[in-house]
Design goal:
- About 45% of the residues lie in helices and about 15% in strands.
- The protein has about 450 residues and is α/β, with parallel strands linked by helices.
- The structure holds flavin-adenine dinucleotide.
- Flavin-adenine dinucleotide binds near residues 75, 262, 277 and 284.
């Protein structure tokens, strides 16, 4: 059961483990170390290098898609944390570099090809690689780099930094004189590499053994399509309503194109799953041309945007646009389970014509203890709900006075999320009762 205490306890435990692992190389370096100190600034600079490299290595764990890693946070929160940690890792590695050069110019020889060509090449490439990781993430679109190539280069550049960083530590040797210390550092790099291989090779291989077939592709509204997949020769997979999966379309799962989409169908139907997809870029714009009978692969399920642990008697969904998909899965599941809990859905969309699932929601509200409020942005009048954007006034109107007794599920475009989240937390609703999911992870 998700209570405030269990949420805070797991959040605290998770962060503690993360920071202990980040600091571990410092402890490792000092165990049994007998050489004389080279002065504060040099030791400080070296320490930053250790911490930066540990953070880089841990990035592979954060993005390894293990559902236990990151609990109690959602995958999107974990990836945002990964992004922030990446900036810190870059900061630590660059400061390591500058602090050492400024505290003793002899260190310049590390970059001098006349002294050691390979070492100079490797270390200057690391500085370029670690900076490229940040620059390409921040300005990917400006560089015209498509997401899939960015993602591949991101993994490879990070691996390069970790491997060269480890070799650098070995070569300097000041803090890794013992064999067990060397083995630990090599083990650390091997694990980072192993996680990447696991993600890119082992997981697709696992998926290849459980293929899916596209059963139908249906237009919901302009630019939004539902695609139904059926498990071929297996039972499908068990998921909790509201979770998402990584989808690859075509005959092989060994592809760069793998995208996360939330399952919009009932968790009671394991072998036939529906994804509802809005056209956005190169991949999603091709969904309409997918032919029934073609192949698909599904990796998952992932995410914590689920009702499973909610004990609230009233759950409130606040969604916008394509952010309706997890709510659709939850509502369809509750209908299949004959669950009579009280639900309110406040759903923002441009207008009636551009609202996916308008009819399906009507049917669901007749079958469930569900009130659906449509908030139409463009409509002059909206007899079926509200018009404009989802504001605090609208939220208050449809939420019972005892705000903290409800549980909230927020999913929609960034502008909506940024407007709604502070309102809900401003009502004093405890953090474990507010579930947010963002579809833009980078
Ligand atoms: C947890 C989660 C659940 C989602 N659920 C849905 C859903 O139910 N319906 C829906 O329409 N969309 C959903 N999305 C968004 C969907 O993944 C992107 O719209 C889609 O991947 C865009 O791909 P593209 O090539 O068409 O667009 P692009 O123009 O290439 O990408 C646009 C943006 O989408 C994101 N993106 C693109 N490719 C990937 C990728 N391979 N992995 C991760 N992010 C990527 C990036 O933020 C990128 O900047 C979800 C995203 C996440 C993170």
């Amino acid at each position: 059961m998700r209570t405030k205490a269990t949420f805070l306890k797991s959040a605290f435990a998770w962060l503690t483990i993360f920071f202990v692992l980040v600091a571990a190389p410092l402890v490792l370096a000092l165990i049994g170390h007998q050489q004389e100190s080279r002065g504060f600034w040099i030791e400080f600079g070296v320490g930053l290098g250790f911490v930066g490299l540990a953070m880089m290595g841990l990035q592979f764990l954060l993005t390894a898609r293990y559902s236990k890693i990151g609990f109690p946070f959602g995958m999107d929160e974990l990836l945002q944390f990964h992004g922030q940690a990446g900036y810190f890792a870059w900061g630590f590695i660059m400061t390591h570099f500058f602090v050492l050069l400024l505290s003793n110019t002899d260190f310049l020889e590390f970059l001098d090809p006349r002294v050691n060509f390979l070492r100079a090449l490797a270390l200057s490439s690391v500085i370029i690689a670690v900076t490229a990781l940040i620059v390409l993430t921040l300005w990917r679109e400006k560089f015209g780099l498509i997401y899939e190539w960015w993602r591949l280069s991101h993994g490879l550049l990070a691996l390069f930094v970790v491997l060269v960083g480890t070799v650098h530590i070995m070569q300097v040797g000041f803090y890794v004189s013992e064999l067990w210390q060397q083995v630990t550092w090599v083990g650390f790099s091997v694990i980072a590499m192993g996680l990447l291989v696991h993600n890119r090779v082992f997981r697709p291989w696992q998926m290849s053994r459980k293929p899916y077939e596209v059963i139908s592709v249906k237009k919901e509204v302009d630019e939004i399509w539902s695609i139904v997949l059926e498990a071929k020769g297996h039972q499908g997979f068990t998921f909790r309503a509201g979770q998402f999966a990584w989808v690859t379309l075509g005959d092989t799962p060994f592809k760069l194109q793998q995208h996360p989409f939330t399952i919009s169908s009932s968790a009671e139907k394991k072998s036939r799953i529906r994804f509802t997809i809005k056209e956005l870029g190169d991949f999603t714009s091709e969904i309409s041309s997918i032919k029934p009978g073609s192949g698909a692969f599904v990796e998952g399920p992932y995410g914590n945007f689920t009702l499973s642990e909610s004990t609230a008697t009233h759950n409130i969904f606040i969604t916008g646009g394509i952010g309706i998909t997890p709510a659709m899965s939850i509502l369809n599941t509750l209908r299949d389970r004959r669950d009579t809990r009280k639900m309110t859905l406040i759903y923002g969309s441009p207008n009636r014509e551009q609202t996916p699932f308008f009819e399906e929601l009507k049917v669901l509200s007749a079958e469930l203890n569900l009130q659906v409020i449509h908030v139409f942005e463009d409509a002059e009048e909206n007899p079926e709900g509200e018009k404009g954007f989802i504001t605090e006034k609208i939220l208050k109107k449809y939420t019972p006075g005892n705000f903290a007794s409800c549980e909230y599920f927020i999913c929609g475009p960034p502008a909506m999320m940024n407007a709604v989240e502070p309102v809900i937390s401003g009502w004093g609703v405890p953090v474990h009762k507010v579930h947010s999911e963002r579809f833009n992870i980078v």
